[in-house]
TrEMBL record, chain A:
Molecular-function GO term, any one: ubiquitin-like protein binding
GO CC annotation: ubiquitin ligase complex
Descriptive protein name: Defective in cullin neddylation protein
Every DCUN1 domain range: 1-190
Protein purpose: Neddylation of cullins play an essential role in the regulation of SCF-type complexes activity.
One matching Pfam family: Cullin_binding
TrEMBL record, chain B:
Coiled-coil parts of chain: none
InterPro entries xref list: Cullin, Cullin-like_AB, Cullin_CS, Cullin_homology, Cullin_homology_sf, Cullin_N, Cullin_neddylation_domain, Cullin_repeat-like_dom_sf
Annotated GO biological process: ubiquitin-dependent protein catabolic process
SUPFAM superfamilies linked: Cullin homology domain, Cullin repeat-like, Winged helix' DNA-binding domain
Species of the source: Brassica carinata (Ethiopian mustard)
Pfam families with a match to the protein in the record: Cullin (PF00888), Cullin_AB (PF26557), Cullin_Nedd8 (PF10557)
Domain Cullin family profile: 379-604
The organism's taxonomic lineage, starting at the top: Eukaryota, Viridiplantae, Streptophyta, Embryophyta, Tracheophyta
Protein name: Cullin family profile domain-containing protein
Length: 194, 729
């Protein structure tokens, strides 16, 4: 337990007793992980971290204990296992939702701007659903109906990737089940394919 | 799928190849149930390409992938598409081409689905030709160029088959035509040079042959029907399977071969059609066929004009011949016939020729030619005025019929060049109608004047309208006059109509005539009343226009005689004497010799013999003696003894001639005053133009008036150039 805290103090600011964004940069470098990698998000999820860019001592402890890692080295080695765990279907849905909430930086904020969403999509599901993400990101950038995305639309996209075959989208039925954003998205693709 | 693992090119490509082969196989088998690529496979291939493009150097394979795409497409075109087409012939050749083209499009579509990422990020960045463009070019270079000539030949052969009545696969032709269009990759040039050009050439010779045959075998109406049908079919052909831009070119060729090349024969056919009253459909067809052709309608309008002129001239000649043969009144019927002719051919203009201005103009020009011909010395202006007179005196025709005829008259007036002559004759007749006729149909009189005014202007009808107003004013004045008298002057009822000399035709004064005393009293009473009621006006009495009702106390019964005032004055002499000689009469009454002869003829040598003449004969001589015929009687209680009118036609023509000289003078002076200097030719033409609304001035007359004006020092000739005139201020 003490060693966990010791590692914590390697990156935290003494004044606030938090690991701040600068600390996280160092952490990533030591873990040999890119800052924009999905790994750091998975770690945050495991810690149940609340504020993006910051780890409290409590969160840090929680996470490393769950991973059974009390040194940096052990932590590094635990990462592939962590990924496997996150990617199990039951966990991934939860993780996917978590990444949205984690990105809400202001109090009372309920939606995220398009630019950030596009980056988030690429990081979180880009490698699994490359074509859908590519098309969706392109669509988001050119459409004018929405300037921000909410949780419902975020989750709707995940469902879309999982339930609808791409690129023919034959099962897609524009009904109350899908947010309007996705209806427009599908229509846009169909127009392009014609 | 974990980002991080480098995909080597050969490995990645292998995955792609499986996708490509699957598509190829499925297209060959044409099993439509199976989608060529299932979602999982698609995801895999897409992601693979994505990763291969995003790997770091030297593993970023974007360029190589682009080339590979190019190779795949080329290979497919060369090895799969082309050979299968080349194996077939004729219509099967086309069918295979069409089928392979459709397959090719599906193939390219799926391939592009895989390579979308490449398109969006690599190709657009480097501005390379797009995936679609590469595919199109491959098809063009390795398939199209090899087969297009053949395809074109088969297409044209099929079109010919359809032209001759055969059934062909139109959907197939549409597809093939689309290939020619789309293979142009953004331009329509390939379609135009590889297919359209040949089709147009071929069509020209096809219809050239047809034209030569049909023009020999068929009549003009039949030929036109065939032409119209051919045009319709060709247009239909374009909508069914050719590109829309071909339509105007095709139509132009067909028109040229079928219509323009044989225009002369068709136009002479038109002459025949016009002669027959039953050929409106064929004439309409001729209009429809020639109307889209530039300058196509002008010759047809010419034929129409010549025909109408001929018809009109024939009518005029008929009337002229009848007149020389002595039958009187034939010329009256002429106006009615001309009106009928106008109605008939106006229907042609509105129905067959769709109200086109060319044909309105042709009709107008035709009518202007024969409407201005003279019949038996009478100009058309006079004939028309007589016609109006009869029309307005007639009862028995319905109001609508009369109004319709009035419309026709007004139209005809427009064609007549001597409009001023018409006005004069009309005025004279109007005066008679207003003064002598019991029943004046005021509505129709006003209607005709209003309609003429609309076309010819207010000044033209101002005098006639003044006449109408005078009659109204006169009635009011008469009431005032009657109201002012305590008793009838001279014991006679008298009604006076005051005519404004500005409006009415000029009449000779006849105040020299000696009226009986009771009539004189009436005249004096009115003259003084008039003097009180008006200022600075001079009354001139014109007894020749008056009417008198005289009771003749014959032995058997008294009869009321309706007479002209002159006749009444002569008869009243017999109140004071039994027998009067001609010489005595002329002294007492103070009429001119001609007038007295006319009066006595009407009273003693005509239908009713009120006076006995010695010796009995048909004519009056200065030695005759006259006696009141007390034995005269008649079944009626009142008879009208008409006094034949003086034929003042010559006078009217003279008066108009006089007015014209004045008008020409005024016009010349007006023109020279504004232009100061003008050559002879232009002065004459401007003068003609200015006066054209009223009459067509004779060139000789204008020359005469110019010379007269020079003598009167209004103009002078230029010293250096005697062709030019100068205004003398």
């Amino acid at each position: 337990m003490n060693s966990i805290i010791a590692v914590f103090h390697q990156y935290s600011k003494t004044s606030s007793n938090l690991i701040d964004p600068q600390g996280i940069v160092l952490l990533c470098s030591d873990l040999d992980v890119s800052r924009t990698d999905i790994t750091i998000l998975m770690l945050a999820w495991k810690m149940k971290a609340e504020k993006q860019g910051y780890f409290t001592q409590e969160e840090w402890t929680r996470g490393l204990m769950a991973l059974r890692a009390d040194t940096l080295d052990k932590l590094r080695k635990a990462l592939p296992e962590l990924e496997k765990e996150v990617r199990t279907p039951s966990n991934f849905a939860d993780f996917y939702a978590y990444t949205f909430r984690y990105s809400l930086t202001e109090k009372e904020q309920e939606s995220i701007d398009i630019e950030t969403i596009c980056q988030l999509l690429d990081i979180v599901v880009g490698s699994t659903f490359r074509p859908q993400v590519d098309y969706f990101v392109e669509y988001l950038k050119i459409q004018n109906d929405y300037k921000v995305i909410n949780m419902d639309q975020w989750m709707g996209f995940y469902r879309f990737c999982n339930e609808i075959s791409f690129p023919d989208m034959s099962e897609y039925n524009p009904g109350p089940a899908w947010p309007l954003l996705l209806n427009n998205f599908v229509e846009w693709i169909r127009d392009k394919q014609a | 799928m974990y980002s991080g693992t480098i995909i080597e090119f050969e490995k990645g490509w292998k995955l792609l190849e499986t996708g490509v082969s699957k598509i190829t196989r499925i297209l060959e088998e044409e099993t439509t149930s199976e989608t060529p690529v299932d979602p999982e496979q698609y995801l895999g291939i897409y992601t693979t390409i994505y990763n291969m493009c995003n790997q770091k150097h030297p593993y970023d394979y974007s360029q190589r992938l682009y080339h590979k795409y190019h190779d795949v497409v080329e290979r497919y075109a060369k090895k799969t598409v082309l050979p299968s087409i080349q194996q077939k012939h004729d219509e099967y050749f086309l069918k295979e081409l069409s089928r392979r083209w459709d397959h090719y499009k599906v193939f390219v579509k799926w391939l592009s689905n895989f390579f979308t990422y490449l398109e969006r990020f690599f190709i657009s960045q480097r501005n390379y030709p797009s995936l679609l463009e590469v595919a199109m070019k491959s098809f063009r270079d390795f398939v199209y160029l090899e087969v297009q000539a053949n395809a074109k030949d088969v297409v044209i052969a099929l079109i010919d088959k359809e032209r001759e009545g055969g059934e062909i696969d139109r959907a197939l032709l549409k597809n093939i035509s689309d290939i020619f269009v789309q293979i142009g990759i953004g331009t329509i040039e390939r379609y135009e040079t590889d297919l359209e050009m040949f089709l147009l050439q071929h069509t020209a010779s096809y219809y050239g042959r047809k034209a030569s045959r049909w023009i020999q075998e068929d009549s003009c109406p039949e030929y036109m029907i065939k032409s119209e049908e051919s045009l319709r079919k060709e247009k239909e052909r374009v909508t069914h399977y050719l590109h829309s831009t071909t339509e105007p070119k095709l139509v132009e060729i067909v028109q040229k071969e079928l219509l323009v090349s044989v225009a002369k024969q068709l136009h002479s056919g038109c002459i025949e059609l016009l002669r027959d009253d039953d050929k409106m459909d064929d004439l309409s067809r001729m209009y429809r066929l020639f109307s889209p052709i530039p300058k196509g309608l002008e010759p047809v309008a010419d034929v129409f004009r010549l025909h109408v002129t001929r018809e009109g001239n024939a009518l005029v000649k008929q009337a002229q011949d009848a007149a020389t043969n002595g039958s009187v009144g034939e010329e009256q019927g002429l106006v009615g016939k001309i009106i009928d002719l106008h109605d008939k051919y106006m229907v042609y203009v509105t129905d067959c020729f769709q109200n086109h201005t060319l044909f309105h103009k042709a009709l107008k020009e035709a009518f202007e030619i024969f409407c201005n011909k003279k019949v038996a010395e009478r100009s058309s202006a006079e004939l028309l005025a007589n016609f109006c007179d009869n029309l307005l005196k007639k009862s028995g025709k319905s109001d609508e019929a009369i109004e319709a005829t009035i419309d026709n008259v007004v139209k005809l007036l427009d064609y007549i060049s001597d409009k001023d002559l018409f006005a004069e004759f009309y005025r004279k007749k109007l005066a008679r109608r207003l003064l002598f006729d019991r029943k004046v149909n005021k509505e129709h009189e006003i209607s005709i004047l209003t309609k003429i005014k609309r076309l010819q202007g207010g000044q033209y009808t101002s005098k006639m309208e003044g006449m109408m107003t005078d009659m109204e004013v006169g009635k009011e004045f008469q009431k005032g006059f009657e109201g002012s008298l305590p008793a009838k002057p001279g014991g006679i009822d008298m009604a006076v109509t005051v005519l404004n000399s500005r409006f009415w035709p000029s009449y000779k004064t006849s105040s020299d005539i000696n009226l009986p005393r009771d009539m004189l009293e009436c005249v004096d009473a009115f003259t003084s009343y008039y003097g009180e009621k008006t200022r600075m006006r001079k009354l001139r009495w014109i007894y020749s226009l008056g009417t008198c009702h005289v009771i003749g106390r014959f032995d058997q019964k008294p009869i009321e005689l309706v007479l002209s005032t002159y006749q009444a004055v002569v008869l009243c002499l017999f109140n004071n004497a039994e027998r009067i000689t001609y010489q005595e009469m002329i002294e007492q009454v103070n009429l001119s010799h001609e007038d007295l002869v006319r009066v006595l003829t009407s009273l003693s040598c005509a239908k009713y013999k009120i006076l006995k003449k010695e010796p009995v004969s048909k004519t009056i001589s200065t030695t005759d003696v006259f006696e009141f015929n007390s034995e005269f009687t008649n079944g009626m209680r009142r008879i009208r003894v008409s006094l034949p009118l003086v034929d003042d036609r010559k006078k009217v023509v003279e008066d108009v001639g006089f007015d014209r000289r004045h008008a020409v003078d005024a016009s010349i002076v007006r023109i020279m005053k504004s232009r100061k200097v003008l050559p002879h030719q232009q002065l004459v033409s401007q003068c003609v133009e200015q006066l054209s609304r009223t009459f067509k001035p004779d060139i000789k007359l204008i020359k005469q008036r110019i010379e007269d004006l020079i003598t009167r020092e209004y103009l002078e000739r230029d010293a250096e150039n005697p062709q030019i005139f100068k205004y003398v201020a």
